[in-house]
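In this section we walk through a basic example: taking a raw amino acid sequence and producing a predicted 3D structure, encoded as discrete structure tokens. The instruction is simple. Fold the sequence below.
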Amino acid sequence: MVDKNTPVAPDVIGLLEGISTTRAIRRYLDEPIPDEVLRDIMFAATRAPSGSNRQPFRFIVLADSDIAQQAKTLIATGAQKVWNHKRTTEGYEKGSGVVEDSPKARMAHTMQQYVDNFAKVPVLVLAVLVRYREQNPTEGSSVYPACQNLLLAARGLGYGGVITGFHGFVEPELRMLLGIPDDTLIAASISLGKPAGHHGPVRRVPMAGLIYGDTWGESPAWAIDPPGTAFTRGGPPS
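The resulting token sequence is shown next.
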């Protein structure tokens, strides 16, 4: 039980450092997330911007109750189906995917371990959008900023997570189990826990390939990555 007078935990890393080092964390230690930490992570999520400041997002936090375990197990079946299909159709079982220690082989190993243990993640958070108008292409803008706040807060408190869409393959059963209304969008399922590995500088495409100035395709002179930035070619591992 969290005392209502317990203040939000102090930052342990700077904001910009957190943004540049928040990796997708898929391996977790076998330990729960304390209630006071969950409070601070989810508080950060509720501070996110949304259209007209309606805050139409809701979060279902699934930790260690019986119903939480049922939901985790249910979504785990979806995770395994998705990965089994992706592993075959995207070439993870041939070429560089079977070359030991190649980027693609490492990704395959990480994903296999993740889906095999999905039902055991310490906490699973469902991000839900309460629709207040007809479905439209921009509605995610009122829920995904809250998801990013959540992940950044977890990073700042020594935890980590990753956004998935695994719930989509068992959505009817999940809605029935958790009583989620039909006029909502389950936008993401986010696993959280204490990292078994570590966070670190993320690899991304250089700024010049992503930031344009006055015209399309023309990078401004100031779009230069800071010293020590790690880069990637972009896209899935080959």
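Looking at the output, two observations stand out. The longest strand covers residues 184-193. Residues 66-89 form the longest helix (24 residues). In the next section we compare this with other chains.
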